[in-house]
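Risk mitigation, structural track. In case the binding assays with NA7 fail to produce interpretable data, a predicted complex structure has been prepared as a fallback.
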Amino acid sequence: MDDAVTDTEVVVVGTGVSGLAALHHLKARGVDVVALERNPDVGGTWYHNRYPGCRFDSESYTYGYSFSQEVLREWHWKERYSPQPENLRYLRFVTEKLALRDVIRFNTTVTGAHWEESTRTWVVHIEGGRSIRSRFLMTCLGMLSTPTMPRVDGIDTFEGPSFHTFDWPKDGIDLRGKRVGVVGTGATGVQAIAAIAPEVASLTVFQRRPNWHTPLGNSEITVEEMAEIRSRYDEIFALCAVSPGGYVHQPDRRGFHSLTAEQRRRFWEELYAQPGFAVWLANFREIFVDREANAEFSAFVAEKVRERVHDPELAEKLIPKDHGFGVQRVPLETNYYEVYNRDNVRLVDLQQTPMVGVTLTGIKTTEEDFELDVIVYATGFDAITGPYEQLDIRGVGGRLLKDKWVDGPETYLGLLVRHFPNLLMVAGPQSSSSSVNFPRSIEAQVDWCMGLLDHLRRNGLTRLEPTAEAEREWVAYVAHLYEKLLMREARSWFTGYNSNIPGREHGQVRHVMFNGGQPKYREILDAVASSDYRELVLS
Ligand code: NA7
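Fallback model:
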């Protein structure tokens, strides 16, 4: 890259799954674009999360981009739920195939962006003091790219290696023969725990609240199967397009109450044996909204845990008692429960014996001092809004985005923000990205942004901003969708909960995601575009 470039039409921040998609479409249109990436390579989430066991919960062939026939033709997904190294290889492959690398500046950390009304441009600030001026700012920051560590005493005092799973050492770490502690049992924790348990000397799992986990059901995809999948790509993407979650799984529409308890049980046995999110997303829709349905299914899954964990007392500790199945993100697992039947694995229930702090040599609870060689924090993220709020993004009149969002995000369509003109967020708060198979959601968003930019270009316009009314209505609509779902009660990043961030403990729901399903989301985006963006002020 030529470092002297200071003016461009679009700056894209981040080159993970959404940034690469944006870059491809912008380049294909001949738009002058520069992408800024803090890492030395593309990949975002799949660049960072190198912990053992890290892999898709989405069927691999529904996770790839749909827009390049060449990529679809040439790429072979080798596993149904592809692992991180392969996913990073895929994103590098796409980068080369679509010739995206030449417009990316690596090792370039954006610290903020300031809107300048007189020139209708964003001045994007880069660590080290440089800046780039651009007409449009496209933020592709990811939803889970700001890790959070526990708020406990002594976290920096531990003398051995300790790190968040997001920052797993790039060159790997040899855990063989080590005493390892893992804090956190969300989607990340369960993948890591199951993967490392067989190789470490001892594994101590520090669990605060258990989650509902169900089997992933991973398997190999042979060359012949991949050929068959390739021949069905149109059909697969069409299926994802009509599914609320953007997956191949479709909700069962017979109705929970129209079947007998015995019929429901048979159906659930079938679902439990199916791979992926079928058990969550191909279930009765009542699971998400009806307490009775949710309780019955939760009891079914609890039985599975009891069958899989030999020690009945331990099994009870692994069964959530404070929330029903599926109101939090359901982490999929491979032999997770069986891990607790091993002699070298111990569960520490932090509800019974809370963590007091981290010491020079391990973790201290109210009951015991645990001596450890390595501590792994699988403690989650300042999800969805975090990546925005850590930047100094200032809109009209120097307004800080973080201030605007102090009581929760306010956006239009999850893509635009009033008083922040020409800012296009991909996978932003209140978009469908966190409730939908990520690439399926972001492709719709990127397409919409491209349509909008085309419209501006065609009409010689240089400024866009949503109206106050459009934003107000979107925020209210997003909040209304939460009201229908049991999920509104969850202590989960779906509701903006994060015990490690002051003020974000359980209690105050932040409406961070669109829960209306991908078909509805796409329908709304299309309607806005075909009304010539009536809800936006364009000039
Ligand atoms: P999650 O789902 O936010 O899980 C974080 C886990 O860490 C969860 O079990 C938390 O328990 C636990 N946690 C967080 N802070 C602490 C402290 N201070 N002490 C003990 N335990 C703690 O993050 P993941 O990375 O697993 O998953 C994020 C998403 O990535 C996932 O949904 C996928 O979409 C991909 P808690 O439940 O708060 O009691």
